[in-house]
Write a structure and sequence with these properties.
By secondary structure, the chain is mostly helical.
């Protein structure tokens, strides 16, 4: 197996998942629309008080991003499982862990990256300044891939199980909490005039740990589901 062959396989998996997402725009847009609706309703419900909106903004935006990621996890492997594509991925000579990483990367490009790009725009509703929006974007850029990697484990463990959406939530929400705390905490700390390095470093550490461990755990769960 050459490095070129592995690179081609990763590129093909990402490209295929992106093409499938383009053909099923409704599924891909559901996550983004959900994020926009949730973050836009809070200013309407709470009122126009700037101090209150700035105080709740980090938690609201991060919780909305977390729930949006959770909403999209159910279809991460389901379609490929029904179509038999997952069986083919297991049989190809390339490592399944690498191919799983490619699928998670495609999932993040479809559901996570739009949230990262929209968050600064939606943050304007809460009266956040440009520097605060920059910290928010950076925290989401570090945190949302971690959510996708951790969520992939839950999606693989519940593959083919009835009511898998509920089971995924029960499995991954406890693991999402540290990412939520560090992500929202980075923005809150900056607003309070405290350094954000600690929270961002912890987010980066979570991402590195997830990059190393999550594809391996997900691949093992997929093999079990396919047996």
């Amino acid at each position: 197996m050459t490095q070129l062959g592995l690179t081609d396989a990763v590129r093909d998996v990402i490209r295929r998942d992106l093409l499938v997402a383009l053909r099923r725009r409704a599924d891909a847009l559901t996550t983004v629309v959900f994020f926009v609706i949730v973050t836009s309703l809070f200013p309407l419900g709470i009122g126009p008080e700037p101090a209150v909106l700035r105080m709740i903004a980090p938690g609201v935006l991060w919780v909305a991003a977390l729930l949006s990621c959770l909403l999209s996890l159910g279809r991460l492997f389901t379609t490929d499982y029904v179509d038999g594509v997952l069986e083919q991925l297991v049989l190809v000579p390339q490592p399944l862990t690498v191919l799983v990483g490619a699928k998670v990367a495609a999932h993040w490009l479809i559901s996570g990256l739009p949230i990262v790009l929209l968050a600064p725009v939606l943050g304007l509703q809460y009266g956040l300044g440009g520097d605060v929006l920059g910290v928010l974007t950076l925290s989401l850029l570090l945190g949302t891939p971690t959510l996708s990697l951790i969520g992939a484990i839950g999606a693989a463990l519940t593959l083919g199980v009835r009511g898998s959406h509920v089971l995924i939530a029960l499995l991954v929400l406890p693991l999402f909490i540290p990412v939520l705390i560090f992500g929202a905490g980075a923005v809150t700390s900056y607003i309070a005039g405290i350094g954000v390095e600690a929270n961002l470093s912890l987010l980066g550490a979570c991402l590195m740990l997830a990059v190393v461990l999550a594809p391996w755990a997900t691949a093992a769960a997929l093999r079990i589901a396919l047996e």
